[in-house]
């Protein structure tokens, strides 16, 4: 008898502690999820990181089911049993896994595209991470919870499938979205069996999933979503690039530490001489694709005008990235940019620079890439 009372009092004390410090525990778990991602992506392989993201997504789905199963049987929440403890910590686990999945997806999408192009989608990820804390009360509402969970499913699968199938095909993205939609619908149907009263919530979760599916595909085919799993490791504008053995020898202008921090570079060039853009791109094993360097010049009143599109093939698997370059001879002084793209026009990275016409070239620095 005393043992039962002791367990009950311990459970009530734990619940009181949780309620009292919920405003700190919830964002704390989100931060822990982000920190775990930072450590994970620095210490394990990409394939292992993707497996962890999928495990997080599965755990989040299980915890959401557990929460609703217990809420349908409210008396269990107050009992000092294993089920009661699970229900007590379930919101924290959901916050942790949501934070880990969103920040993990953000890491992949951030490094796989130019922010100037992919910023709308990246800001959506950042907003959801912030809202996971600020609007946590709304996150507990079933429609919001299920919508965010489906977005996470879509994001994780769209990150994982290109690695799994070693392909950048647009059909892989559509297929990953279709699989996530099937999983989402089956998940909601299973949740309805646990909580029949949720069948009457408006708007319906499946409707919100269809909207997310449509928006994600619109962003993808509008080239706003970056081309995962490619990522730009290194890029620069040089006066000369030579392929010597297994190395690339580049000659460029010396930049101070401050110049390297400021976006944009001034290239001093003489007309008739070549200007090179060198790029090193990470690609997973067995992925073969074509990279395009899209040279553009800014014209007053017209905006960015396409000058040339030069391409080369890469084959994935090299940890240091696959290297290539393009060059232009007929150029004018002014503002330029080169987009490193896929054949579909998805921007992996962007170099913006000024070309200033000079008679004598500055002293050039030799580098080995």
From TrEMBL:
Pfam families in UniProt: DUF2914
UniProt keyword Zinc present: no
Entry keywords, A to Z: Membrane, Transmembrane, Transmembrane helix
Keyword Repeat carried by entry: no
Annotated TM spans: 21-41, 47-67, 88-111, 117-135, 147-165, 171-194, 206-225
Domain annotation DUF2914: ranges: 289-355
Lineage: superkingdom: Bacteria
Name of this chain's protein: DUF2914 domain-containing protein
Lineage: Bacteria, Candidatus Uhriibacteriota
